[in-house]
Design a protein that fits this description.
- The chain is of the alpha/beta class.
- It contains seven helices and twelve strands.
- A six-stranded mixed beta sheet has the order 6-5-9-10-11-12.
- α2 packs across α3 and α5 crosses α6.
- The chain is globular.
- It starts with 5 loop residues before the first helix and ends in a 6-residue tail after the last strand.
Length: about 280
């Protein structure tokens, strides 16, 4: 790469870091990339670090030593996240979104790139201190949420299927009981999709009693994998505590009340904002 003026180098270096979250980049790599001395690179990184932290973009961690370098972690401040979730809750409260059974229509919302980027960064912030190798979700509406989160954590995604596809090769299938309907259903995961003993973050779009997520947890046992965390975009609040199959999870929004006659509902920020 040709030698850049410092102002241009700062812009390019910032973009380079933003597109490679949770990746350790050595000072030597930067020095070689820009044809600059390491001392100049260090000064540039100090400027970027200050701006990232002041503007709530994220954290820039420096690791000393021969194998050291810098690593960018996207972070969303709690007050920023809360403001975003209030806006999302307002969108989701529209009467036209009420579906039979107390579910929400969210497909259009989950198709908005800017919203997904915010939610992905929010999930990445919530689980930033966990050791995570891969993100798991079940088809279909959880997929965009999982990929948005994976982009911020820079880790792969595996997708659990409702039925086994020929193109997936051999798979592990289990039966699970839906927490809300009490019906027995099936889910499967290709054997090649997940390495044994992986640390897995589960992301889902909507949770009622938690039967689907519990099914994914049971499926992970077949791979000797560990559940690193569970993130839910919207949880239903009309489930009795004893009916809830899951207790350890983070939700971003909570559907607290639904009136099927008037199509009125109340959605508030989830348990992530309680602490």
């Amino acid at each position: 790469m040709k030698k850049l003026k410092r102002s241009a180098r700062l812009v390019e270096m910032t973009q380079y870091l933003l597109t490679r979250p949770h990746t350790l980049i050595s000072l030597t790599a930067f020095a070689d990339r820009y044809g600059s001395a390491k001392s100049s690179i260090s000064e540039d990184l100090a400027i970027i670090k200050e701006v990232f932290e002041e503007e709530g973009i994220g954290e820039l961690h420096t690791l000393a030593g021969a194998a050291g370098g810098v690593k960018f972690k996207p972070i969303m401040p709690k007050h920023t996240a809360l403001a975003i979730m209030h806006d999302i809750c307002a969108k989701l409260e529209h009467p036209d979104r009420v579906l039979p059974g107390g579910y929400l229509y969210m497909t259009d919302v989950l198709g908005q790139p800017d919203l997904l980027a915010d939610v992905g960064k929010l999930f990445a912030t919530a689980f930033r201190d966990r050791q995570i190798d891969v993100i798991m979700t079940v088809e279909t509406k959880g997929i965009p949420l999982a990929y948005a989160t994976a982009a911020c954590l820079n880790i792969p995604v595996v997708i659990v299927r409702r039925d086994n596809k020929v193109t997936e090769g051999s798979a592990v299938s289990i039966n699970y009981v839906s927490g809300s309907t009490k019906r027995i259903q099936t889910m499967s995961l290709a054997r090649r999709a997940l390495k044994e003993r992986s640390n897995v973050l589960i992301i889902d779009d909507f949770m009622k009693a938690g039967g689907t997520i519990q099914g994914m947890i049971d499926l992970l046992y077949e791979f000797n994998a560990t559940v690193a965390g569970v993130g839910v975009f919207v949880e239903s609040g009309d489930i009795e505590r004893e009916e809830r199959l899951l207790e350890d999870y983070i939700s971003l929004a909570k559907l607290t009340a639904v009136d099927m006659k008037t199509k009125q509902m109340n959605i508030v920020p989830g348990n992530y904002f309680n602490s």
